[in-house]
Predict the 3D structure of the following.
Amino acid sequence: MPALEPKIAPSILSADLARLGEEVSDVLASGADMIHFDVMDNHYVPNLTFGAPVCKALRDYGITAPIDVHLMVKPVDELIHAFIDAGASDITFHPEASEHIDRSLSLIRDAGLRCGLVFNPATPLTWLDHVMDKVDMILLMSVNPGFGGQSFIPHTMEKLRQARERIDASGRDIRLEVDGGVNADNIGEIAAAGADTFVAGSSLFKARREDDPHRYDTVIGAMRRGLGR
Ligand SMILES: O=C(CO)[C@H](O)[C@H](O)COP(=O)(O)O
């Protein structure tokens, strides 16, 4: 079972991008722990989002919470440098998109950031075999990457259990993050399978409070109750 405090990480993919700074401030004020920042390049995935200047703009706006950058790009190293300079806190990338996984991880760690690998639903965990001592987090995609609003793929539950076993065997405090189709109804089951960090995009951002459009505390509260908190 996860030993680390659970964290809720809203994916800004589903935020109102015309009011991004405000949206990020609002979810953090409503109880989110960090921000999940989805970078898509229309090459590794068939969609295009935002890059390092937007991350820097959030820092300049005054956001001090961790910004967890998920690179869905190929190649990865140049953008790693850009996001280090832009104020990212964590950077994860897909191992099959990196020419040299060990080097890409080292670029992130040597800059003092947390680093990790991301696994698509059909990407095997064996990519971890020789870098388990170098990752601070493992991100399991529970949808195929590229779009928000998809349904959680059920076989991710078994993969989460396998990833949890690997983490426990390593004896290290590696975070196990899950991304795609997470909501207040399934978060408890996902946590029981071993996850401790929960990315939520559409289920969170669509649940603005009707009486106060700047508050997301109802849905974040429901997620925490789902986690037994
Ligand atoms: O990485 C992603 C897509 O590639 C998104 O972070 C993920 O899908 C979250 O969105 P939702 O909670 O709406 O499923």
